[in-house]
Amino acid sequence: STIPSSIGTLTKLKYLQLNSNELTGSIINDLGELSNIIIFDIGSNKLTGSISSSLFDKLTNIESLKLGNNMITNMIPNTLCNLLKLTQIDLNGNMLSNSIPKDINNLMQLKYLDLSMNSINNTIPPNIYKLSNLEVLDLSSNNLIGTIDTSIKQLSSIFKFCIFDIFISGS
Q: Against a cut of 0.90, is the pTM above it?
């Protein structure tokens, strides 16, 4: 089944956990009306299509975003970087492409970022190293290229850093 658009009318909803339900269809824009949402988990389904840049406009209270293990395509919208309370982003196991948003460093509360198993290309943006609260960073199995330089030492809280199956060198 699909995500019913009527969920968008539940404006007091704080926790949306629809993971592992074999949901199909796209991520409907009506979910962007959930302005009080803290946990948004629709991972491990069969959702397709792209993430609308307007989806995140009203989700200013969101702390955890889990869209992993679906079939989401296209790019990660830069509007995601306006969600300043985010501590967790899981977008792994999709078909996301293009590059990591350049404004990723706006997410200073972020502790967990998993973008693994996608088709993200270009280089690792240097701004990602400014996320000093980041504890887990997984960029494995993407089409990333480039180098890892001494800026990585800014990730002072990191304890898991996965970059296997990409084309990276270091200095």
A: yes
